[in-house]
Structure to design on (936 residues):
């Protein structure tokens, strides 16, 4: 049986921490769908199209990785693409409690799903999309925090 | 002296975790006012009337339980209904830090009040109103997460 | 029905934080057994007799409080004294996770028991028996950290 | 070389906990700029002018302390005023994880900066600006939570 | 390439939480070595032979699972059995911080290893080997906390 | 007035994380006493003499740093060397809660002392002396985890 995972997130924007999780998890799965969660009510810094383009720039030569988006329940998207695993990165203890609640509720609603966690690397621990957005908004340089292949135009 | 507690919360919506806390705390108090906090500025998924109705469906045959609402300081409502105890459920360490701050500030403002904490049951740990709301918004089935007697119409 | 609680602990030694929890919980119960846990394998700074004497000095004129000791499972002691509640103080998030595990396992083994938590006062948050023991061992003054009525002889 | 720190925050409003951190850190620095972060998109309870006036009332006779405001990256403000240290207070474990992320990202962007943490006093642990704002909004008395010299008019 | 994981632990004793993690992770790996860590200096409640026997009782008909033991560095054992993954269960935020340190140090010493985390089920959250040992020592019934197939003799 | 700090710890052994904290804090103080806590009852991997020698190797050409040891209360040692500051590194949320308790008790016993915290660098977060000891005991290579100038003989 094929081992299919989704890697869901808002990815506003995708960071070097996300990239590292995908790269290290790749050996474990036959296919990873990077699934950009779309929420029409929440203001994002980057549009859905931009967020998907950024991620494609990072993994475009990798046949195992496909960038998609979804709206609705994560488990419904899992059923749609036939995924049995949800891949998530863990940075901090605060992260953990939130991730645990989401994962256990997903499991309660759909027993065939398992959430598999990878740690971020120590040097990526402080980096999250919300802090990166803040730096971008104030005109700071985020090149250290995003994948080398990702091209955020007009951002110094 | 009568032992009166309030169980304050937004309850948007009331969950199976809330129900369990009230049921297990009931032996300790002569009266528990379930006090729906009302905040005119915050958008709720369910109206105040709906939230009160849901809770009433769960406890309607229990003379010890009364469903009320309040706007303003929790300690002012305590004084109004002559309550000496605030009842709260604890799920996680993150919960705990927030609850501790609120309880200690309440105590600093009104020395006669004590906050009494019950744990949620292990199987209810991942369930909170915010996750339940999210599932409802995306059309998911929340019947496992809300009290059996509670009837959320048009929700599958 | 009488509301009986036990307040179990090693109490090596009893601190001002423990005293405050008992005093604030007293209104909620008809009887509180302060139950000194005895572990023949662990080295304690104070003997069981000393620990019980210290606590008696604090509450000797209070008919609601009785100082006892036990060895074995806490829930077995609860059954023995007919207690339906275990009283515990909570100081920190780290405390909370430990207390939650113990309380939920007790509940799994004996469904009629409930653990009821009170917060320590903010100014007592850093005080725990292990730190107090350390200060005593190094000849420091612990009078700020123990109940006023408690007389630790030869301790400056 | 002069030891210059900034103490950045929203200070909506400044609390007794903030005051205590500044007072205890004062011996370590030659100059502390209390830097009110200004965010034109976020609703604050008090205007920038009010927030600066409150803090000035507390420290007006202290030549080491200067009240300023800034918009933009904190490290850019540090460069502007020639500060090598960012001063922050720590209250809780949840606080800590957030503060760590911010401080480590600041360090990644500007290697010459160090964030120096002081603890709040135990009795100030539950007090934060968000809770104080909430009490003010509901007409409660916050005099215990703000510096004695601070005059919030029309607040009982 | 074969996907080989080790599931290291002291397993003194193996619990229902461990069993659940192995069962849910099984689909992801071709082989899981349950690796009982042996520490000649630490007192264990059960001997190494007993601990291995218990685990064998649970998985004896499963060709994917093999029970082994090791002394020394976990990464050295990984190299020995050609494992690229370390499997661990996560229960709580406190667990998480400890697990993260171990996993990141393992990664720093041996870059080809990845630690993969599964959550325990909510109802297993309070169960850990240390609490189970404590209950056994006091003559309590642990049948709810250990796998159904595991036969701890003379334990009621 | 001279700004004198002590940096207390067991340092069994001193790590690259400790070194980084001292180096980054050095600009803030006129003198830092690295104070090796000595506990005759606890087994250490390295003797007091070895631990002091290791630290001296790291800072031997730095006139601001002096390596000492003490037995007894940390605040008594502070008084002895006329230090007004205790310097500590913070790695994780679990660390934080422990450090907070110690620091607040020290402050309660000796009001003139302040504990000043620096963060460890993200890449040093997983490294603590206990894990380093464990690696050494199992014959692993710890050169990445200790200062470059430190020479642990017979350790590969």
């Amino acid at each position: 049986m094929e081992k299919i995972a989704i890697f869901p997130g808002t990815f506003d924007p995708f960071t070097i921490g996300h990239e590292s999780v995908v790269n290290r998890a790749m050996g474990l799965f036959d296919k990873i769908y990077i699934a950009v969660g779309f929420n029409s009510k929440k203001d994002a810094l980057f549009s859905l199209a931009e967020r998907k383009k950024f991620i494609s720039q990072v993994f475009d030569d990798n046949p195992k990785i496909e960038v998609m988006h979804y709206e609705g329940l994560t488990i419904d998207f899992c059923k749609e693409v036939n995924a049995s695993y949800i891949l998530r990165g863990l940075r901090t203890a605060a992260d953990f409690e939130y991730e645990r609640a989401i994962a256990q509720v997903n499991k309660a609603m759909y027993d065939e799903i398992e959430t598999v966690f990878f740690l971020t690397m120590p040097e990526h621990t402080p980096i999250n999309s919300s802090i990166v957005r803040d730096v971008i908004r104030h005109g700071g340089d985020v090149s250290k925090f995003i994948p080398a292949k990702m091209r955020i135009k007009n951002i110094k």
In short: The mean pLDDT of chain E is 95.
